[in-house]
Amino acid sequence: EWVHFIEFVNRIIDRFEMTKEKGITFVRRFPKYPVYVEIDTDKITQVMDNIISNALKYSPNGGQVTFKLIVYHECVEVRVSDQGVGIPKESINRIFDRFYRIDKARSRQMGGTGLGLAIAKEMVQAHGGKIWATSIEGKGTTIHFTLPYDREQEDDF
Ligand code: ATP
Ligand code: MG
């Protein structure tokens, strides 16, 4: 299904913004022009839901979650950054494995199964995209994912 991607993402973020706790602020950095992508909206909604709930779960009170959309020639990249506990270097790739949870008291208290990012990875890959994380422990985490995009196609809309 073809969607106006910024409107689509904004609606998902709005839904979290209405219910979020802990006084977390959302910041959106999106291009001013429309960007159309062909996606399975249910699946990409699940991907976004997973990433945003993690960002909220691992953020301190009063933290900021920043959403950024970067448009390249052949893909768009979504970045969701938090100011939370961060992820140790040795775990940065493993968080996308099934049932993997960073074994600190924190994850056990938080609840969850450790499947969220594994499912997100499957869904992004099914779209021909990539997903990865960057993080500085104690400072925060950014989850990045890409979706194929065709800049030339924009002319047809
Ligand atoms: P589920 O999503 O199934 O409810 P979960 O959130 O623990 O459980 P994932 O979403 O797959 O599972 O995340 C795997 C692990 O990666 C988490 O348990 C957590 O340790 C770590 N993690 C994920 N996102 C973040 C983040 N934004 N900041 C810090 N750690 C994170
Ligand atoms: Mg999760």
Automatic annotation (TrEMBL):
Subcellular location as annotated: Cell membrane
Whole sequence portion shown: 450 to 606 of 606
Domain of life of the organism encoding this protein: Bacteria
Name this protein carries in UniProt: histidine kinase
Location of the Histidine kinase domain: 1-151
